[in-house]
Amino acid sequence: MKKYLILIVLVLNLAYISAQTIVSTDIENKKVVLEEFTGIHCGWCPDGHIIAESIVEDNPGNAFVINIHRGSYAIPGNDDPDFRTPFGDPIGAQASITGYPAGTVNRHVFPGMSQNSGTAMSRGHWVDASDIILAEVSYVNMAMEAEIDYDNRELTVLAEVYYTGDSPESSNFLNIALLQDNTIAYQNGGGIFYNHKDRLVWMITGQWGEEIITTTSGSFISQTFTYTIPADYNDIEAVLSYMKLVGFVSETRQEIITGNACTPSYTNFPYNDVVMEQLDVPENVCSNSISPIVEIMNNTANIITELEFEYSVNGEETHTYTWEGSISTLQTESIELDEISFQTSDEYSLNVEVLYSDEDQSNNVENANFYPAPEGNVHIFLDLNTDNAGDQCTWDIRDFEGNILQSGGPYGSNENIQENFIIDPDCNTFNLYDSYGNGGGSVTLSDSDGNQLYYTIGDYGSGASQLFKTDAIESVYSPDVKGFRIFPNPANETVSISFNGSSNIQSITIYDAYGRQVEEVNISMLKQIDIDVREFPTGFYFFRFSNGTVEKVVVK
Fold it and tell me: In the Cβ-directed half-sphere of 40, how many Cα atoms lie within 13 Å?
């Protein structure tokens, strides 16, 4: 690393500073820097990563995470990746870690949350600690810009600091961490294809940062650093397009006052290619229209500000959509296209092309297939089997607006759950959940006609969702129906059905609550028929008459 410019200036003309610098001169609240201590052999660490990501997503531009692999869980075995750095153990040692995953929020001690009276906390406290920090006023602001020369892999970082108040310490420390995203490698609890994000690879400013010796209100500090990114860290490729930086100002080696982050821009970039990386459409649809979402990667040297798309379903009319925005080099953007309608079919094929003159046209086009949602009537039956951890299994059915219509669980071990209910005609979603993430027993969702709406043998992991459509059927539940009378209902031994002279009913088919046919009875010219139900299991049954009428009968 070489440092070739350090300026420490006390400037009273705030308008001049604002016009010439990237750091804000306004009083701001603190920003969160979550240092997450993790390791590839830590089974609960993926859950910690989810919590950390949620903090960042809920506080865009105000919360940042640094994943630090250290300790016994980070020691690689045969063919395991080595994500450790020279900086991880000293940072972790001062946090007083007693269990993993652990995290520090701005290296601050939160009474009642600490693992061992230090700054380290278990993952259940990270959100609350972050909320406390975000509500506090900071006496210092920080901002960064960075650039990577693609030819020689040289990273240049401009970091600026401005004091809106006085620090209680005569000197502070500027820290800049280089992180790498999107390393696919083993993680206990996440599998061999786990995506490791926000992974610390180097501290540009050294173990504890560069000292700032002017810390009074109005102080402005500008430092520029250069660092040549190697081809790999511990034999793990250092991919330039996955690099980003998190910086922060600390009072000592402990208390972090605030921080910020940036993604580098690139010079001498050798490619000119716009890539459609992903095309997202729902697997099933209830209507004859969708709004596709495409993910575009800018693999060019320029900032893309406009793109044009052409797309069609099943070769029908081509639609055009023009997007305007900003995508920097090596960055991606999710773009939702305008809604497109199409004719009803048993299968749909969507074709999308981004119209851009680049060196590789093959990745400018994507196709995706989707299907009509399975349809059934409003009489829904659920047959759910749990494994030996049924307390991890829950489910619900939601309407088109997300309102819960039916739900169940958790259950006992190795149980068979049979539920039946009636829901309104709508486009609904059946959601199945497993809190441990390894699925359970077989699950079937069907209707009274035997239409299968969802089925799994039990390999649904942490959960599954299925869109399905319900339509009304002609159902009659009163004791008196035109053409016949059914009694008693509920029944213990015999169900009697008498027919009037105008009845043209020829047969009755009886289904159980799961749509399975139990019996079929021919009526012929009979005026009354008695059906023995003593061998029927307790529950309710559907008597479907040949004229289309359905009667629900309860057997006690």
Answer: 23
Place of tokens 């209830």: 286
Same domain flag for 384 and 362: no
Q: Are the beta carbons of 1 and 227 closer than 8 angstroms?
A: yes
Give backbone dihedrals phi and psi of 72, rounded to 5 degrees, phi first. -65, -35
Are 137 and 258 contacting, i.e. CB atoms less than 8 angstroms apart?
no
Phi then psi for 50, rounded to 5 degrees? -65, -45
Instruction: Tell me which amino acid residue 303 is.
Output: I
For 359-392, write each residue's pLDDT tens digit: 999 999 999 999 999 999 888 899 999 999 999 9
Q: Structure tokens of 369?
A: 């297939």
Residues 52 and 134 in one domain: yes
Rounded CA-CA distance 134/388 in Å is 43
Closest CA to 37 of 127, 82, 97: 97
Residues 6+ apart with CB under 8 A from 218: 10, 11, 12, 163
Nearest to 282 by CA among 340, 365, 355: 340
Closest C-alpha among 192, 198, 191 to residue 83? 198
23 and 93 in a single domain? The answer is yes
Instruction: Give the count of domains, the chain.
Output: 4
Query: How many Å apart are CA 96 and CA 120, to the nearest integer?
Result: 6
User: How does pLDDT run across 503-551, given as a tens digit for each residue?
Assistant: 678 888 998 876 788 888 887 767 788 899 888 887 778 888 887 778 8
CB-facing half-sphere around the CA of 368: CA atoms within 13 A: 19
Based on the fold, state whether residues 188 and 55 are members of the same structural domain: yes
User: Do residue 227 and residue 207 come from a single domain?
Assistant: yes
Element (H, E) at 510: strand 507-511
Identify any residues that bridge with 105 across adjacent strands, giving them in sequence order.
34
- Taking the C-alpha atoms of residue 136 and residue 129, their distance in angstroms, rounded to an integer, is 11
Return all residues near 146 (Cβ < 8 A) that are at least 6 apart: 155, 156, 157, 158, 245, 262, 263, 264, 265
Round to whole Å and give the CA distance between 23 and 145: 10
Last residue in a domain, options 207, 240, 267? 267
Structural domain that includes position 486: 480-555
pLDDT in tens, 393-435: 999 999 989 999 999 999 999 999 998 888 888 899 999 999 8
Q: How many CB atoms lie within 10 A of CB 281?
A: 18
237 plus 252 within the same structural domain: yes
- For residue 483 the two structure tokens come to 């053409």
Flag whether pLDDT at 1 surpasses 80: no
Distance, CA of 455 to CA of 478 (rounded, Å): 33
User: What pTM was computed for the model?
Assistant: 0.66
Q: Say which residue the tokens 């009163």 belong to.
A: 478
Q: Which of 372, 402, 434 is the last residue of a domain?
A: 372
Kindly report the CATH number assigned to the domain that includes residue 363: 2.60.40.10
